[in-house]
């Protein structure tokens, strides 16, 4: 079940003078209780979407799988989420379109920075000892980037899905499951990894990121019909989102405080720590399509999640991102330049 958070009261208070209400174009944004979704929450609370002529409403989900279903059913125009549900959806013929990255690094050919594995003290798993997970119960939301990260890390250690017992648990319930001994370890994105470390007595951070075979940047998704019918909404959204990302990068602690109003069960210090580990870079480079083909898609084929790899280039549309960078270069000025010839736009 989704939870819709209306931004009307906040936007009304913060956006006086930005634009008349009747001039704002409506947009619904699919998001989840993930620390890297901060630009969505900041964009609403600080009136950045309204500044760009948008009346933004956030629709909250538990996982990317549910979020994709909501997008396809018209519950929202845009999603921020992981790569695995996006690519799995493309393989099934879903009309999804990538218009930017929620987080990632356009200059690297692997990316899993926002994912981590945390084990309980009772499990006996030590930091860095992936092999000790053999035979253990690992909690995670199935079908998400967390599953891709765990299996990628296991593969690097010569292990696979059959070597562990995967337990499907929603993100917000993972810390409780680990604390109660229902699982021996959890694999999850931030802030839940940091929360497990700080709230579960004796918890061990087994690994954070560092999966050379993983390529799972966050995505900003829409559908082909929204691209065709509402290009101006997407243009305004991408410009606002890039500005919100830049604000979060420059104001980590303040952004963590805003996250606290949207993500329950996380302490402020933990939220700030988790947010500081995320690379909020919206840019698409040549690595996006290349590494999806070289790493993410073959991995999904090997797991039997999809039948065959494919070229996702036709589902990548960079026009709105390019317009955002051209219109507001200051929102990108603190990011490391992409070498000539590697940019996708």
Question: How would you portray this structure in words?
Answer:
- The chain has 345 residues and is an alpha/beta fold.
- It is built from 14 helices and 11 strands.
- It has a 6-stranded mixed sheet with strand order 1-3-2-4-11-5, with helices on both faces.
- Helix 2 (38-45) packs across helix 10 and helix 8 packs across helix 12.
- It is globular and about 60 Å long.
- The two termini are 37 Å apart.
- Mean pLDDT is 92; it is low at 1-18.
**Strands across the major sheet, in which order?**
1-3-2-4-11-5
Number of strands: 11
What class do helices, strands and sheet pairing give? Answer: alpha/beta
Overall mean pLDDT: 92
End-to-end C-alpha gap: 37 Å
Principal-axis shape equals globular
Share of residues in strands: 15-25%
- Total of DSSP H or I helical runs spanning 4+ residues: 14
Uncertain spans, ≥5 residues at pLDDT below 50? 1-18
Helix content, binned percent: 25-40%
Main sheet overview: 6 strands, mixed
Write the layout of secondary structure elements.
Blueprint lengths: L2 E3 L2 H7 L10 E8 L5 H8 L2 H4 L2 E8 L2 H9 L5 E4 L1 H9 L4 E6 L13 E5 L17 E4 L4 H12 L8 E4 L5 H6 L5 E5 L2 H8 L4 E5 L10 E5 H6 L1 H20 L1 H8 L8 H8 L10 H17 L16 H9 L18
Parallel strand pairs: 2-3, 2-4, 7-8, 7-9
Antiparallel strand pairs: 1-3, 4-11, 5-11, 6-9, 6-10
Helix pairs in contact: 2-10, 2-11, 5-13, 8-12, 10-14, 11-12
Quickly list its features.
globular, alpha/beta, six-stranded mixed beta sheet, five-stranded mixed beta sheet, single chain, about 350 residues, disordered N terminus
In short:
With 345 residues, the chain is of the alpha/beta class. It is 38% helix and 17% strand.
């Amino acid at each position: 079940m989704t939870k819709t958070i209306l931004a009307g009261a906040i936007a009304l208070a913060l956006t006086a003078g930005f634009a008349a209400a009747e001039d704002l174009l409506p947009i619904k944004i699919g998001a989840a209780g993930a620390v890297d979704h901060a630009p969505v929450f900041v964009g609403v609370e600080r009136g950045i979407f309204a500044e760009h002529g948008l009346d933004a409403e956030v629709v909250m989900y538990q996982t990317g799988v549910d979020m994709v279903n909501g997008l396809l059913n018209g519950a929202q125009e845009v999603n921020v989420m992981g790569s695995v549900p996006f690519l799995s959806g493309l393989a099934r013929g879903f009309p999804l379109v990538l218009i930017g990255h929620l987080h990632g690094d356009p200059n690297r050919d692997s990316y899993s920075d926002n994912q981590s594995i945390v084990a309980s003290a009772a499990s006996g798993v030590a930091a860095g000892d992936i092999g000790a997970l053999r035979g253990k119960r690992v909690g995670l939301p199935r079908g998400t980037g967390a599953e891709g990260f765990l299996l990628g890390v296991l593969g690097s250690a010569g292990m696979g899905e059959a070597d562990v017992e995967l337990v499907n648990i929603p993100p917000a319930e993972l810390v409780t499951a680990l604390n109660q001994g229902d699982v021996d370890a959890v694999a999850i994105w931030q802030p839940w990894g940091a929360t497990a470390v700080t709230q579960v007595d004796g918890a061990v951070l087994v690994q954070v990121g560092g999966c050379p075979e993983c390529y799972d940047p966050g995505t900003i998704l829409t559908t082909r019909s929204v691209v065709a019918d509402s290009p101006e909404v997407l243009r305004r959204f991408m410009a606002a989102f890039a500005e919100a990302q830049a604000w979060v990068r420059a104001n980590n602690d303040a952004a963590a405080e805003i996250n606290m109003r949207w993500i329950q069960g996380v302490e402020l210090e933990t939220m700030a720590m988790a947010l500081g580990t995320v690379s909020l870079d919206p840019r698409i480079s040549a690595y996006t399509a290349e590494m999806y083909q070289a790493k993410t898609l073959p991995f999904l084929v090997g797991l039997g999640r999809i039948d065959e790899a494919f070229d996702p280039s036709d589902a990548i549309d960079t026009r709105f991102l390019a317009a955002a960078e051209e219109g507001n270069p200051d929102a990108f000025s603190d990011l490391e330049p992409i070498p000539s010839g590697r940019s996708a736009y």
